[in-house]
Amino acid sequence: PIVVEQTGRGESAYDIYSRLLRERIICVMGPIDDSLSSLVIAQLLFLQSESNKKPIHMYINSPGGSVTAGLAIYDTMQYILNPICTWCVGQAASMGSLLLAAGSSGMRHSLPNSRIMIHQPSGTDIAIQAEEILKLKKQINEIYAKHTRQPLSLIESVMERDRYMSPTEAQEFGILDKVLVHPPQDGEDEPELV
C-alpha cells in the first residue's frame, strides 16, 4: 500500500513500510529467514545512524524461523545503543518470542489477544550437526534466562516442549512487560493496560 502526504512542496508518496520507518517503526512480520533478517538489521542500523538515543519500535507477528537469522537480529538489537520497544501483535513464536523478550526492559509489550510460544531449536531450523544443536539450545536458553530473569534450570525445563502462553502468562514469565488495550490517547502519559 502507498501512503500519500501533503507537504509544503506538494504530495509525497511512500510505501507503508517506508512511512513507518520514518516513525522509527520496524515490522517483523512472517517467518524469520535470511531475507527478513537482512532487512530488519539494515533498518536497525539506519535508525541508529539517525539517532542513537531515540527509541525504535519493533512490531512482531511471527511464527519464528531460522535460528541463525533470528540470532543475527537479536545480536544487532543488543549491539545498537537505542532503546528498543517490542510489540507482539498476533503471535511471537519460537525465534519471534526471543526477539520480543530482547526488547529493552520495561518496553516489551503485547496486545491482549496475541499468543507467545517458546521452545528449543530443532534440527529442521537449520542444517546443522547434533553437537551444534546442543550449543544453540544452550545459547538460546541463556538468552531467555538473561531477559526473563528466570533461573536457567527453569528455562531448560520449560523449553523441552512447545510452551504457548497468553500475554498475561508471558508477562508473568518475564518475556514481556506490559499487555496493552489501546495506545496512549491525547493527554495520557501511559497506554491503557489490561
UniProtKB/TrEMBL annotation:
Keyword presence, Metal-binding: no
Active site feature: S94, H119
Cellular component GO terms held in the UniProt record: endopeptidase Clp complex
Pfam families in UniProt: CLP_protease (PF00574)
Major enzyme class: hydrolase
InterPro entries per the UniProt record, alphabetical: ClpP (IPR001907), ClpP/crotonase-like_dom_sf (IPR029045), ClpP/TepA (IPR023562), ClpP_His_AS (IPR033135), ClpP_Ser_AS (IPR018215)
Top-level taxon of the source organism: Eukaryota
Gene3D superfamilies listed in its UniProt record: 2-enoyl-CoA Hydratase, Chain A, domain 1
Identification of the protein by name: ATP-dependent Clp protease proteolytic subunit
